[in-house]
Amino acid sequence: MGIVVNQSIRNTVITYIGFAIGAANTLFMYPIFLGKTYYGLTAFLLSSANILMPLMAFGVHNTLVKFYSDYKTEHEKSAFLTFVLLLPLLLILPIAVFGFLFYDRIAHLLSRENPIIFEYVWLIPVIGLCMGYFEIFYAWVKVHMKSVVGNFVKEVLLRILITIFLMLVYYDVLTPIGFVYSTVGIYAATALIMMVLAFRIRMPKFNFDFPQNRSHVMLYSVFIIFSGSVAVLLLDVDKFMLGQYIKIENVAYYSVAIFIATVVSVPSRAMHQITYPITAKLMSENKHDELNTLYKQTSISLQIVGGYVLLGILVNIQSIYELLKPEYRGGIFVVFVIGISKYFDLILGNNNAIIFNSKYYKMVLILGLLLAGAAVWLNHLLIPIYMIDGAAVATLIAITLYSLAKLMFVVTKMKLFPFTQKTMHCLLISLLTFALFYYWDFNFHPLVNIVLKSVLMSIFYAYLNYIFKISAEVNRVIDSVLAIPPKP
């Protein structure tokens, strides 16, 4: 776990720095500088591009991680890397032709409720393409156990560029419309930077003697396209469908609430950057016991850290929303619902990495497609009635069912189980902490309230987890921070 803990901590720190910048963008700059209409439009375009991204990447970002360790010689690795770089063109070119021929029909369909969307629809596949190749080059560095540099570009540099362009809007150098178009340049720039960094770690030697198992690689990639699309649909279909049923301004309100809740998943995102390739390697070498240990360790560590973040958000949620413009304050329910769904997903540890590197990924894909369909149906049913609250509930149901389905496959088919008695102990500590601090308010400025409650809650939560030794890995990190010598 040494490399996992080391890189996970670094990735977590980087990701939280990125989220701090993103918080300034999402909670203040977007609403004030762009206004709710263009903020909602930007959120809709980026969510739509994210849904399209797995198609543009052809699932290669997962395929690269799964198969790279199987190739032993430099010739085989070069052939494989060349193959996966070219593979996305099989879908990119047909999508480009289809989009060109039927652009007006597609644009009219997507802009029925909000006509402002019509002239910007072409940005969706272009941004999706940039996102797709970014993930491919990010996977390129992951397989060489260099996840930190890619994480910095994805979480920090991208948001810094967005901040710069939002400031240009503030100083009237750029119009809100100009910012919307500039998002293409921002995502293209990060994809190019990621490509340069990936090639510095390993410069490709183009070898068109494609790998012998290329049919297997292609088949896996096709399934990953659908799997990735299912995962993205479950995460982003709500914002996409909000733009189809209600005014685009509601996407802005919803995006603020989703951003706040998504902070819960930061530790999981940071840890998975390094555990994914390690999981693939352990499964390739059939090291079942080591894999089971890693599964349990990632689960309890993420439960502690993610639970702490969720508690920090929920006990301070009233004060957080007092800092925002009044029209954005209707999203507290969304934060609770989405935050809980993120918490449940992260306590499953490296479950996704196990699933997508096993022979059962096809079966889980079928369940995922059914649940993605259920998510679309639930959003269609609930959004017109409950608006953003309905979208949140639909997302909670869909993500929870999907997570349960994946967990059951890992438990029943692979005899791996992420939970121990410590899981329940940690949950009880979290519930106790919430009960003690949620209703305890100070009559100070919201920022002062947030700081005071967070400090007190942090001491209480960390102390209980530490003395009850919920996670040996987390305790070692605390010991190192406090300079406590290890016990003999």
Produce a short descriptive summary.
The chain is mainly α and 488 residues long. It has 20 helices and no strands.
Q: Compute the number of strand runs.
A: 0
- CA-CA gap between termini: 19 Å
Average of pLDDT: 85
Spatial extent as radius of gyration:
22 Å
User: What order do the helices and strands follow?
Assistant: HHHHHHHHHHHHHHHHHHHH
Strand content is: under 5%
As residue ranges, the low-confidence spans are none
Q: Tell me the helix content.
A: over 70%
Major sheet size, sense and barrel closure: none
Number of contiguous helices: 20
Oligomeric composition of the shown chains: single chain
Taken from the alpha-carbon principal axes, the silhouette is: globular
Q: Please identify the structural class as seen in this structure.
A: mainly alpha
Q: Features of this protein?
A:
488 residues; mainly alpha
Commentary on this structure:
The chain is mostly helical and 488 residues long. Helix content is 80%, strand content 0%. The protein is built from 20 helices and no strands. Helix 16 packs antiparallel against helix 17. It is globular.
Write the layout of secondary structure elements.
Elements: H1 2-57, H2 60-68, H3 74-86, H4 89-101, H5 103-110, H6 123-142, H7 147-170, H8 176-201, H9 214-245, H10 249-262, H11 266-284, H12 288-314, H13 317-322, H14 332-346, H15 351-356, H16 361-386, H17 388-414, H18 421-437, H19 446-467, H20 472-481
Helix pairs in contact: 1-6, 1-7, 1-8, 1-9, 1-10, 1-11, 2-3, 2-6, 2-9, 6-7, 6-8, 7-8, 9-10, 9-16, 9-17, 10-14, 11-12, 12-14, 12-18, 12-19, 14-17, 16-17, 18-19
